[in-house]
Amino acid sequence: MNPITSAHLHLVLCHAPILTLLLGALWLLVGWWRGLREIQQAALLMFVLTGVLATPLYLTGKPTAGAVKALPEFSDRYLEHHEAAAGVALAGCVALSLAALVGILYFRDRPFAPNFMLLMLVGALAVSGMLVWAGNAGGQIRHSEIRPDPPATE
């Protein structure tokens, strides 16, 4: 059996922030629509979890890049695009996570303000887009079938 490497961890973690964020956004919609504070709070906790999961995902990126550079059909262009997208996505995840945590603490003894929940929903959808963009860019590093164009010879 092969030892677990940073590349393994990176690939295992890569879908987790996207899924937790989308599930959290769905919970937020349901909780807000039905007026269920517990579901709204669970959604905010999912947003906090997204930031927690995105951090080790990002940190395993650099060592993983070193592992794929020697593989056939590797292109620095796709790696650089993924790294840029990942940085933006991590910043979005951390900002959303901190906002959700502040909201949980600030509204702990009272109902969540509708404007706050709207802000969290818009933020969650925006950060979901960032994560999907970063994930797609990462997939293009090894999956030439999803690349928009063939890589230039380097």
Verbal overview:
- This protein has 154 residues and is mostly helical.
- The protein has one domain.
- It has 6 helices and no strands.
- The chain has helices at residues 6-13, 16-34, 37-59, 61-68, 76-106, 114-142.
- The two termini are 34 Å apart.
Key phrases:
single chain, 154 residues, mainly alpha, 6 helices
The mean pLDDT is 90
Low-pLDDT sequence parts: none
Helical fraction: over 70%
Per DSSP, what share of the residues sits in E-state strands of 2 or more residues? under 5%
Topology:
Elements: H1 6-13, H2 16-34, H3 37-59, H4 61-68, H5 76-106, H6 114-142
Give the gist of this structure.
It contains six helices and no strands. With 154 residues, it is an all-alpha fold.
